[in-house]
Design brief:
33% strand, alpha+beta, 129 residues
Length: 129
């Protein structure tokens, strides 16, 4: 069976605070978040930008979070104000939020993994089997 793996990386700048955290992360501060998205599929699909079944997913679709927050992305926002209730603004939960929203844009059989880094030395990964 054929298998394609697609990966893209991008960054966005946002502020946040971790509610209830005792220490500096409990105060408003910012990061340049780096995101890596990987998708795997045994089938190719069209996208909203291309009508032909020639891609696992469109890179433009996968990089939705890098768009400005005024048009549905996460760039230049306060994450606490744009992430839905139930998502804390830890790296783990930001990865899950990006995963959940990205998964809605993909076919069900596409496997997805999202990694989010707040600093060059710290990151979180999320995938759901």
């Amino acid at each position: 069976m054929p298998k394609w793996k697609l990966a893209t990386e991008f960054s966005f700048d946002s502020a946040h605070y971790i509610e209830g955290y005792i220490g500096p992360c409990g105060r408003m501060h910012g990061h340049t978040y780096k995101v890596k998205i990987e998708v795997v599929s045994s089938k190719l699909y069209p996208s909203e930008f291309c009508p032909h079944s020639v891609m696992v997913a469109d890179f433009r679709t996968l990089r939705w979070a890098k768009r400005d927050s005024t048009v549905g992305g996460l760039d230049r926002c306060v994450l606490n104000e744009v992430m839905p209730e139930g998502y804390a603004t830890t790296a783990e939960m930001i990865a899950k939020f990006i995963y959940d929203k990205t998964k809605e844009m993909l076919s069900e059989d596409i496997k997805l993994k999202v990694s989010v880094s707040e600093t060059p030395n710290s990151w979180a990964e999320y995938e759901d089997d």
